[in-house]
Design goal:
By secondary structure, the protein is mainly α. It has 14 helices and 9 strands.
Length: 412
Amino acid sequence: MDLSQSSSDKSVMEISRKKGRDQVGGICDALLHRIKSDDYCGYDPYDALNSSLFSTLGGMRLRMARIAWQQLHRRSPINLRALCAIEKARNPKGIALMVLGLIERFEQRRSNADLDEAIRLGDWLLSQRANPQAWPHSAWGYNFHWAARAFDVPRGKPNAITTCYVARALLGLWRVTGERRFVESALDAGKFLQTLYMVQEEGVFYRYVPGESVMVHNANLWSAAIVALTASHAGDGAACEQALLAARHSAHAQGADGAWRYGERSHHGFVDGFHTGYNLEALSTLQGALATREFEQVVERGMGFYRQAFFEPNGDVKYYASRTYPLDMHSVAQAVITLLRVGGSDEDHELARRVIHRAIERLYLRSRERFVYRQGRYFSNQVNYMRWTQAWAFYALSLYGADAERRTRVAQ
């Protein structure tokens, strides 16, 4: 064996990987600059009901009209929002993702600018909690009225997923700053999530939206994970036990192949990549919070299905298990997060690298310094969505960069 050649090959490979990391870092920098230039405001696939034109025409009075109007804008590859008087705005979940990404960058680079920006955005989140007269515990909702088949949610009404991501951002800020206002609000958010706990004959779970009985696995599992984190910090054993019971409900709903339907309604039978990733990350987080290995086989089975079902050999991330298209940066971002945070093997890190570089090749618009919303087989939807696309991309790229830096330090 030619050892000198082998050493040379390794050096070339390391130089190539360093160039790849530098490219990812440069794109992350450009993306952050672009987002900051808009003051973190943007459009969202589901913001159509913010249209003052639609409201003036009386469309808000008809539920089916609301759903149709929302779907028209979500599916259209042409952005009609400016024509329909829909303004760009900040979204609490999008801001929470930006905070999570900025914390990753701070831990990688130790840049006070990143930390100061994360704190500034964290304080904005604290100012945006749902009306305390209606909701006594800290909670957050979307900045738009949201019409779905299962429920209809007014603008600002809190929901489980937005509250979970904001709580994660606040806990992250507390970890790196020690500032009590962040952890106190996060702990209070955990109490709000506890109010969503529901007992039915079919089982116990956390609701997605207050007052609704819809069971959605990612909302249930992330609520269980955040309740586990906050309740264990507060020493609330009863709430920790409720979190375990709710997680068991979704764990038992996992298919023999490791897949999860989105939820338990008749129209929730689809299996997609980013919700699968949510479920796996939430279960992994819950296990860490409660120091349990109870769901280890569930996670291992789910990760096996996830790796097999949602990745093409070239690094493309599939939206649905049954077909490749559309390619969606939201799916890409959660894939990177799941592979690094839940998987963690050398193979997972290599797959995450391929996924990132394939996404840059196919979904990144260099001239505009942002990512497209979706790439279909024959055309792409390039509407610029802040929460759904750019914030997720920023968080994933930041996490990837920080993880690569940590692995490099360990290797040295």
